[in-house]
Specification:
heterodimer, A: 1% strand, B: mainly alpha, 8 helices
Chain lengths: 508, 197
């Protein structure tokens, strides 16, 4: 009952005009970035972040949460109608969604996608509200070794799930952790890696790393492969509509909804996994365990529902570790974490004690954004598809400018523009040489937390590093982190042993 | 350069960077912990740098010994769609929507021109002011991006620049550079025209 009352308080906060406006803007922006060529959801949320500086913390979090929720849906429309996945998470929708479109069942495919997104999002949001406080209460019993272990687990998970090479992902993470040490050390006040540059004494803002590597880096990657000159959409947008399935039809697919949603929540909770991994894992599970699994890929609703319910369910899942422990469960929640930090609030168990109203606002924002997403997704297909008319060169030029203005908004410092441009080039080089960007960004955000908890533990326990492994909770979490790191290595080794001829021949 | 060397290069560079950073870490003042059995402010960055250097060394040696095969062999952390994790994916079986992108072609000159424009913007904005630099940047970037409708490009760049000045300086109250000399006068005249105080 108390939880419901708190949630009602969060909903009431949305009646403030500024918050309501933030919700509306967030919903529209989320849909636009999910559809626009050259913009990913994470990049869109990153670009919006600097402009939340001047907002109140509630409005800022509402805007970013709404973007996150609505951004997980809109890409489905272009994937189903035009075979253009707006986001990586929408790729599975090509297999069944677009196949249905080719059969003349586009409206039904869009309807199943909307139903999947709503049901998955709703169930995960309810679970998020139910789980976040108990997890936070448990986390309140943590001291610095446990917190370090949790942060270490988060960083290890991101590494394990990032790209093809664990070594490259670890190097990327180390770069992020290193960047977080630049400037004045908070414990001893020592100057580190300033190289005589006064602006480096303040440290490297994680915002600059994020905006540069994701925003400008992505633009450079696409420029290198050539922008699309003109519109990519076909004609006949006007005839598209959404035919929402009846409750009876949805009940028939109840196990698909549950499998997809369950997968999305579980994968969403794992730090670093996010909506893309959720959608692919759920699709794979449906093809293996679903009653109609063998038909997946031929244009059946099960393929759409599994992927879409999982992608949206990952939102609630990813917000649980963020709010309860301060560990982001996905790329977008890493940016929401940054928004908290920019407003001087550290998410984690204390936020439930010190700023419970703020947590309830985020919870309520997820519910409202889900409804808004469905309303917009139902009625705004035509204008959303028109967005595809925007030439990529124009969109990308404005993306770069938004990155620069974002840097100005942060500290009003011209030096930051150089930093952001440098990280743009670094982001491009990372992509080019197969180093994932996500671990670097997360290392920059979580680095200070990791270092401070590590140093506090070392000081408190007389430099005894075994404490991380001997205390029950931290030991268990550290073990999980190492298992997470070792699992892909062992899997790759097993693959090689099974197929010794898989590796290509040596170069001459 | 042989393929084997080329595949070693990124990690070798990372190794050199690690060595340089470690040397810089040696300069950190550890006076606060002198004479006390306690780890100092240099411990964490040194640990991170050493780990990074070790990884870079390992990968350099691995690639030097096993060549391209090592770089391509299935590795840890492989998730389903590799490309899908970090960047937007376009289905390779889709009708040719992205032209060169679909064919896997690369345009290093375009890339260099793009980087030059970005760096040029950063260098020029303090002198030319936000409005003029933004207008020039938009015009040039959209042009090198392959957009051929020049009149529309000019219109988009001009209206985009004006809109951004209005949006950020009047609505969001972000202080953007005004420029120097005549460009400052121009910026101030424009701001007066737009009603920005």
């Amino acid at each position: 009952m108390e939880t419901l009352l708190n949630l009602a308080g969060g909903l009431a906060a949305h009646l403030v005009p500024a918050n309501l406006l933030a919700m509306a803007v967030g919903l529209v922006l989320g849909m636009l970035v999910a559809v626009l060529p050259g913009l990913t959801l994470v990049m869109g949320v990153v670009l919006a972040l600097p402009f939340t500086y001047k907002m109140g913390v509630e409005a800022a979090l509402i805007l970013l949460t709404a973007m996150y929720v609505s951004g997980t849906y809109a890409g489905a429309i272009t994937a189903i109608l035009f075979r253009i996945p707006g986001e990586p998470m929408d790729v599975p929708l090509l297999w069944d969604g677009h196949a249905m479109t080719r059969r003349g069942e586009a409206a039904q495919a869009l309807g199943w996608s909307l139903a999947g997104a709503f049901v998955g999002g709703l169930i995960s949001a309810i679970l998020m509200v139910a789980l976040a406080k108990p997890v936070a209460t448990l986390a309140l019993k943590f001291s610095s070794p446990e917190f370090f272990a949790v942060v270490f687990f988060g960083l290890a998970s991101v590494v394990a799930l990032s790209g093809r090479s664990v070594v490259n992902a670890l190097i990327s993470l180390c770069i992020g952790l290193f960047l977080a040490t630049v400037g004045i050390d908070t414990i001893y006040g020592a100057e580190r890696f300033a190289f005589g540059q006064p602006f480096l004494l303040d440290g490297v803002e994680f915002l600059l790393v994020m905006v540069g590597a994701y925003g400008i880096g992505e633009v450079l990657i696409r420029l290198n492969t050539g922008f699309k000159g003109e519109s990519v959409q076909g004609d006949g947008v006007a005839r598209f509509r959404t035919a929402v399935p009846s409750l009876r039809e949805m009940w028939r697919l109840k196990w698909t909804f549950l499998r997809g949603t369950g997968t999305g929540i579980v994968v969403g909770v794992v730090p670093g996994a996010g909506a893309t991994v959720s959608a692919f894992v759920a699709y794979g599970m449906e093809s293996q365990y679903g009653k109609n699994g063998k038909a997946l890929g031929s244009g059946v609703p099960e393929g759409i529902v599994a992927a879409k319910s999982a992608a949206t369910a990952s939102v609630g899942g990813a917000l649980v570790p963020l709010l309860a422990m301060g560990i982001p469960g996905s790329g977008a929640t890493a940016i929401i974490l940054a928004a908290f930090l920019l407003h001087g609030i550290q998410p984690g168990p204390q936020v439930f004690v010190n700023s419970p109203a703020l947590v309830n606002v985020v919870f309520a924002a997820v519910f409202i954004a889900l409804v808004g997403m469905c309303v917009l997704g139902y009625f705004a297909i035509k204008p959303l598809c028109k967005v595809l008319d925007a030439p990529e060169a124009i969109v990308s030029a404005f993306v770069v400018l938004f990155c620069f203005v974002g840097a100005f908004a942060a500290r009003n410092n011209l030096s930051d523009l150089y930093v952001i441009a440098a990280f743009g080039v670094i982001g491009f080089l990372f992509e080019r040489f197969d180093f994932p960007v996500a671990p670097m960004v997360l290392g920059t955000i979580l680095g200070p937390l990791a270092e401070s908890n590590f140093m506090t533990t070392m000081v408190s326990f007389g430099g005894d590093w075994t404490v991380f492994f001997t205390r029950p909770i931290s030991g268990a979490v550290m073990a999980l982190a190492f298992v997470g790191l070792a699992f892909p290595l062992l899997k790759a080794l097993a693959q090689r042993l099974r197929s010794p001829k898989a590796a290509p021949p040596e170069p001459s | 350069m042989s393929p084997r060397l080329r595949h070693c290069l990124p990690h070798f560079v990372m190794l050199l960077v690690s060595i340089a950073l470690y040397r810089a870490a040696l300069q950190i003042d550890t006076g606060a912990t002198a004479g006390v059995e306690r780890i100092g402010p240099d411990f964490w960055p040194k640990a991170v740098i050493v780990f990074m250097g070790a990884l870079a060394l390992f990968e350099t040696v691995r690639r030097a010994l096993f060549g391209v095969a090592a770089a391509r062999a299935p590795q840890a952390g492989t998730m389903m769609p590799d490309a899908a994790v970090d960047s937007k994916v376009h289905d390779v079986n889709a009708p040719a929507q992205t032209g060169a992108a679909a064919a896997g072609a690369e345009y290093p000159r375009l890339l260099l021109a793009g980087i030059a424009l970005i760096v040029g913007y950063v260098v020029a904005v303090d002198r030319l002011g936000f409005f003029v630099t933004t207008f020039l940047f938009l015009m040039c970037f959209i042009r090198i991006g392959g957009y051929r409708r020049h009149a529309l490009n000019a219109l988009v760049s001009l209206s985009g620049s004006l809109l951004m000045v209005l949006l950020f300086m009047r609505v969001a109250y972000i202080s953007l550079p005004l420029g120097a000399g005549p460009f400052r006068d121009l910026s101030i005249a424009l701001l007066n025209l737009l009603g920005v105080r």
